[in-house]
Amino acid sequence: MKVSEKVRVVVERLVPLYWDEHLYSNDPFRVLISTIISQRTKDEQTYGASERLLKAYPTPEAILEAGEEKVAEMIRNTGFYRQKARRIVKTCKMLIEKYGGKVPSTMDELLTLPGVGRKTAGCVLAYGFGKDALPVDTHVHRIANRLGFVSTKKPEETEMELKKLIPKELWRKVNLTLVRFGQQVCRPLKPRCGQCPVRDVCNWWRENKNETNSTHSGHNSHK
Ligand code: SF4
Predict the structure, then answer these.
(1) Cα-flanking dihedrals φ and ψ of residue 196, to 5°?
(2) In angstroms, what is the span from residue 205 Cα to ligand 1's centroid?
(3) Which of 215, 213, 217 is nearest to 195 (CA)?
(4) How far, in Å, CA of 54 to CA of 190, rounded?
(5) C-alpha closest to that of 7 among 153, 158, 125
(6) DSSP state, residue 126
(7) pTM for this one?
(8) Domains of the chain by range and CATH?
(9) Does the CA dihedral 121-123-124-126 come out positive or negative?
């Protein structure tokens, strides 16, 4: 099967199962702050920390006024919380000084913010502004490689390759679809291949099925 055909099959099967329009925030500031908090942190912890912080300090001005210590206190259940608190305060300062207190809506502008890389910027564009963006995190990178969509080493390369393979109008659905699929089925260490709805088109399964049982494997070639 050609890669483009395989992509079409996977998107057709997974998007209806994992995409959820209701998870859109339409609030770029919330998406920006929660994506910074989410780095190396589980979803439940990210959600709780973001809610706490944004309830207490809902605007860039309020966060800047609160300062690093108070921000750190609000998100201290997440990894690297001091580093994140510093980034969040610096980001808010730049939003106020350079962008009139608003989150900018282009990739280039977002990348000028402290600690904001392509993945975070892509999430803000896709989930905050509803724009065509394809943020690639570790789930998307791992799954795209396992399925054989791409053969890449870095998430940035995966993003560029996937954009050539997936129609633009579907880009914004790919991240959330594959993140949820990666949390529930195609997990980093023990993918549940026995429950996988796209097993028949998966390179990783074809190459490893003899070493694994029908439900999972401990082997992992792409994290
Ligand atoms: S068959 Fe296994 S490795 Fe392949 S996509 Fe499904 S869960 Fe992931």
Answers:
(1) -85, 125
(2) 6
(3) 215
(4) 35
(5) 158
(6) I
(7) 0.87
(8) 3-20+135-211 (1.10.1670.10), 25-128 (1.10.340.30)
(9) positive
Q: How far apart are CA 77 and CA 11, in angstroms?
A: 35
The catalytic position among 20, 70, 90, 137 is 137
The answer to whether residue 137 is catalytic is yes
Catalytic residue among 119, 132, 163, 223: 119
Q: Ligand 1: residues within 6 Å at CB?
A: 146-147, 185-186, 191-193, 196, 198-199, 202, 204-205
Q: What is the pLDDT of residues 137-148, one digit of tens each?
A: 999 999 999 999
- The Cα 146–Cα 198 span in angstroms is 11
Report H helices in the chain.
Answer: 3-18, 28-38, 43-56, 60-74, 81-99, 107-110, 118-123, 138-147, 155-165, 171-184, 203-208
Which residue matches tokens 């099925």? 209
63 contacts 89 by C-beta, under 8 angstroms:
yes
- Reduced to 3 states, what is the DSSP secondary structure of residue 104? coil
Tokens of residue 4, six digits: 């483009």
Comparing CA positions, the residue from 132, 138, 123 lying closest to residue 167 is 132
d(CA 83, CA 115): 10
Give the Cα-Cα-Cα angle 16, 17, 21 (nearest 5 degrees).
60
pLDDT tens-digit profile of 27-52? 999 999 999 998 877 777 888 899 99
Pocket test for ligand 1, best of 138, 179, 186, 211 (most atoms within 8 A of CB): 186
